[in-house]
Specification:
heterodimer; A: 394 residues; alpha/beta; Aspartate Aminotransferase, domain 2; B: alpha+beta; 12 helices; binds pyridoxal-5'-phosphate; binds FE2/S2 (inorganic) cluster
C-alpha cells in the first residue's frame, strides 16, 4: 500500500483532470518559441494558425463533426451561455426555455437569471427527475411550446453520471423548430458521440475534464444553424468568437481529444470495472450506504454514494488525511446550507443527501488505488457514525 | 476548501469527550438531520453545581464536530452559572476562529449547552417558547433576536451565517428583516435595512448615505488609518473618495465594492452603485 500512500489517490475527475503528459508535450512549443499570433500575415504567426486548424480537426473528429462546426471558447461555462443566449437573440419573440432540474450551475444559474434579472420576460420550464435522476419523456414533450426558443439538457450529469436521452430529445425539438443545446462537458471522452447523424444544434465541452488544461472549451454549432456571437471583437473563429486564440490550450485540447478517442474503449472496460469494483466494495462493506443515480444509464467513471447519518464534509476531510480526493453534495462543502440541488431534485432523503460522496475515476487510476479506498472508507464512516446522535448501530 | 485553524483541525481529527454521559444530570438536544447538523450534549453536575463530566454526539461538518469537542473541554470544571455565560463567540474564539459561513456551528454548541443547563435546572427553555420564523431550519424569533444582539448582526446574510435562518427557501426573509429592524432599531440609532424606502428625494438619500457612512463605514476605515468622503450622488451612482491609508491601498477597489457598496445597498437602497473618484 505504501506506493499509493506517497501520492494522492485522485478520484475527483468530474471536478477536473490531470493534464496528460502527451498534452503538455504538445503544448510546450506554443508556450515557448512559437508565440506568434495565428492571425498574423508573416509565416512566424501563420504557422501557428495552421496548428489551430489541426486542433480543430481533432476536436471535430471526436464529436463526429466537421471542423467548421467547432468554435473554441474559454471554458464550458462560456459555451453554455453562448449557445442559450444565441438562440434567444436569434428568436427575440420566443420567450421560453426548457431545461432540467439537474443542470450544472453553468446552465442553471443562467436560466435562473433569465427569469429574475429580466423581470420574468423569459419563462423557464425545468423538467423533474425521478428517484434515479431520470426525466419523463411525456413531460418533456408537453413542455415544448410554440414560443420555446431552445432546449438545454445535459448529456451526462456531473454529480451522478446519469446519461440523458439527448439524441431523442433533440429530434423531438427539431420537429417543433426548437433549437437544442446539450452540455456535454462530462460526456465527451467518456462515451462515444457522433453528431453527424443527430439533430443537436449546439454542444458544449470543456478541456479540463478530458486531460487538457483549464480555461479552454468548445462550442459545436451545427452547420446552417443561425448564430449570434456572445463575445464580439476581432474576426477570430470565423467571427463567431472574438479574442486572440488561446493557442497552447487549443493545441492541448486537440491532442487530448485524440488521446480520449484512443482510450474510449479502456474507459468503458477497465475504468468501468474499477468503478464497479469500488462501488460494490463500498456498498457491501458499509451498511446503510446507497447509490445515487441510475444503476446502468450512467457514465463509466462516476459513482455517487451516500453514507447515511454522517456528513459529507467531515467524510472528505478524513479522506483527505489518507490523501484520497473526491467530492460531496453536502451543503457544508459549498457554503450553502442545503445539499446539492441534483440530489434534492431526485428526492434523496436528507439522511442520505448530507452524506453523499462522489467518486469519479479516470484512465490514470489503478486497481491498487480502488483497493486502498475500499480498505480505508469503512473505518472513516464508522468513526463518524460513532459520533453521530442519529446512529443507532447496524 | 475551507480555511480551518489548526485548533479546528485538531479537535475535528481528535475530538475529545465523544459519547454520552451515563445518568446525565442534564441533556441538550439541538438541530436535526434535515438541517445538516445536530448535537446532543450530556452533562454530569455534582452537588456543588460543578460540571464534572461533559460528552457530545454530533452530526455535522468539521466545524460542528470541533465546536462540540472544544465546548466539552471548556465546560468541564465550570460551575453551572459560569457555563451559562459561555457565548457562541467564546466557542469560536477557543477554536481560533471559524469561517463566517460556519458560525452557526458555534451557535449550535451554545444552544445545546443552554438546553442542557435548562434541563438540569428543570426549566423550560426560553428559546422553545419563541415562535418559529424560519421553517426550513426551525429557527425561532427569540433565537434570531439573541444572535442579533450577541453578535451585533446587521444584515440578513449575517443572520443566516449565524443561525441558518433564511438559508433555505428564503421565504422567511421578510420576517427576518422585520425582526432585524425591531431589534436593532430599538437599541440604537442605526439605520435599519427594513426601512429602505422605495422612493427617496435626492436630499433624503444624501442624508441617509452620510449617516450610514458616518456610523457604519468610517469607524471601520479609521481603525486602519483611513477615511472616506462623499463626493457626489447622481441618481444611484455614488462617488466617494478614500483618504489616508485607504488611498494608497491596492485593495481600495475591493474596499469600495465589498464593504462600502454592500453597506449602502443594505442600509439605504439596494440599487446603489459606488465608485471611487479618479
Ligand atoms: C456538466 C458541466 N457543465 C459545465 C461545466 C463548466 O465547465 P468549465 O469549468 O470549463 O466552465 C462543468 C464543470 O465544472 C460541468 O461538469
Ligand atoms: S423558511 Fe427560512 S429559509 Fe425557508
Amino acid at each position: 500500500m505504501s506506493s499509493v500512500n506517497e501520492k494522492v489517490v485522485y478520484m475527483d475527475n468530474n471536478a477536473t483532470t490531470m493534464i496528460a503528459p502527451e498534452v503538455v508535450d504538445a503544448m510546450m512549443p506554443y508556450l515557448t518559441n512559437l508565440y506568434g499570433n495565428p492571425s498574423s500575415m508573416h509565416t512566424f504567426g501563420g504557422q501557428v494558425g495552421q496548428v489551430v486548424s489541426e486542433a480543430r480537426k481533432k476536436v471535430a473528429d471526436i464529436l463526429g463533426a466537421d471542423p467548421e462546426e467547432i468554435t473554441f471558447t474559454s471554458c464550458g461555462t462560456e459555451s453554455d451561455s453562448t449557445a442559450i443566449l444565441s438562440a434567444l437573440r436569434t428568436f427575440p419573440e420566443k420567450r421560453h426555455v426548457v431545461t432540467t432540474r439537474v443542470e450544472h450551475p453553468a446552465v442553471k444559474s443562467l436560466c435562473d437569471n433569465l427569469e429574475t434579472l429580466t423581470g420574468h420576460k423569459y419563462r423557464v420550464t425545468r423538467l423533474k427527475v425521478d428517484g434515479e435522476g431520470m426525466i419523463d419523456m411525456a413531460e418533456y414533450e408537453a413542455a415544448l411550446m410554440d414560443d420555446t426558443a431552445i432546449v438545454s439538457v445535459m448529456w451526462a450529469n456531473n454529480e451522478t453520471g446519469n446519461i440523458y436521452p439527448v439524441e431523442k430529445m433533440a429530434a423531438m425539438a427539431k420537429e417543433r423548430g426548437i433549437f437544442f443545446h446539450t452540455d456535454a462537458v462530462q460526456a465527451v471522452g467518456k462515451i462515444p458521440i457522433n453528431l453527424k447523424t443527430l439533430d443537436i444544434d449546439f454542444l458544449s465541452l470543456s478541456g479540463h475534464k478530458i486531460h487538457a488544461p483549464k480555461g479552454v472549451g468548445v462550442l459545436y454549432i451545427k452547420r446552417g444553424t443561425l448564430f449570434v456571437p456572445f463575445l464580439t471583437g476581432g474576426h477570430q473563429e470565423h467571427g463567431r468568437r472574438g479574442g486572440t486564440e488561446n493557442v497552447a490550450s487549443i493545441v492541448g485540447l486537440g491532442r487530448a481529444c485524440e488521446l480520449a478517442s484512443e482510450k474510449m474503449e479502456e474507459e468503458n472496460t477497465r475504468v468501468k470495472q474499477l468503478r464497479d469494483k469500488l462501488e460494490e466494495g463500498l456498498l457491501s462493506g458499509i451498511s446503510k450506504s446507497r447509490l445515487n443515480g441510475h444503476k446502468t444509464t450512467r457514465l463509466p467513471n462516476t459513482s455517487n454514494i451516500s453514507f447515511e447519518f454522517v456528513e459529507g464534509e467531515a467524510i472528505l476531510l478524513h479522506m483527505n488525511r489518507h490523501k484520497i480526493c473526491a467530492s460531496s453534495g453536502s451543503a457544508c462543502t459549498s457554503g450553502s446550507l442545503e445539499p446539492s440541488h441534483v440530489l434534492r431534485a431526485m428526492g434523496v432523503p436528507f439522511t442520505a443527501a448530507h452524506g453523499s460522496i462522489r467518486f469519479s475515476l479516470s484512465v490514470y487510476n489503478s486497481e491498487e488505488e480502488v483497493d486502498y479506498i475500499i480498505e480505508k472508507m469503512p473505518a472513516i464512516i464508522e468513526l463518524l457514525r460513532k459520533m453521530s446522535p442519529f446512529w443507532q448501530g447496524n | 476548501m475551507w480555511e480551518y485553524t489548526d485548533k479546528v483541525q485538531q479537535h475535528f481529527l481528535n475530538p475529545q469527550n465523544v459519547g454520552e454521559v451515563e445518568n446525565a444530570s442534564g441533556t441538550g438536544d439541538v438541530g436535526s438531520l434535515a438541517c445538516g447538523d445536530a448535537l446532543k450534549l450530556t452533562l454530569k453536575v455534582d452537588e456543588n453545581d460543578i460540571i464534572t463530566e461533559a460528552k457530545f454526539k454530533t452530526f455535522g461538518c468539521a466545524s460542528a464536530i470541533a465546536s462540540s469537542s472544544v465546548l466539552t473541554e471548556m465546560v468541564i470544571g465550570m460551575s453551572i452559572d459560569q457555563a451559562a455565560n459561555i457565548s457562541n463567540e467564546d466557542i469560536a474564539d477557543a477554536l481560533g476562529g471559524l469561517p463566517k459561513e460556519k458560525m452557526h456551528c458555534s451557535v449550535m454548541g451554545r444552544e445545546a449547552l443552554e438546553a442542557a443547563i435548562a434541563d438540569y435546572r428543570g426549566l423550560i427553555l426560553p428559546m422553545a417558547a419563541g415562535e418559529v420564523v424560519c421553517e426550513c431550519f426551525g429557527v425561532t424569533d427569540l433565537e434570531v433576536i439573541r444572535a442579533i444582539n450577541e453578535s451585533s448582526l446587521r444584515s440578513i446574510e449575517e443572520i443566516t451565517n449565524f443561525t441558518k435562518a433564511g438559508g433555505g427557501c428564503g421565504k422567511c426573509e421578510d420576517k427576518l428583516r422585520d425582526i432585524l429592524r425591531e431589534t436593532v432599531g430599538g437599541k440604537s440609532e442605526i439605520v435599519s435595512p427594513g426601512t429602505k424606502p422605495k422612493k427617496m428625494t435626492a436630499l433624503q438619500k444624501i442624508k441617509k448615505i452620510e449617516e450610514v457612512l458616518e456610523r457604519e463605514v468610517r469607524p471601520g476605515l479609521k481603525k486602519d488609518g483611513g477615511d472616506i468622503e462623499l463626493i457626489d450622488v447622481d441618481g444611484d451612482f455614488i462617488t466617494v473618495s478614500l483618504r489616508g491609508a485607504c488611498k494608497s491601498c491596492k485593495k481600495s477597489q475591493t474596499t469600495i465594492k465589498e464593504y462600502v457598496e454592500r453597506k449602502l445597498r443594505e442600509l439605504v437602497l439596494d440599487s446603489l452603485i459606488v465608485e471611487e473618484e479618479n
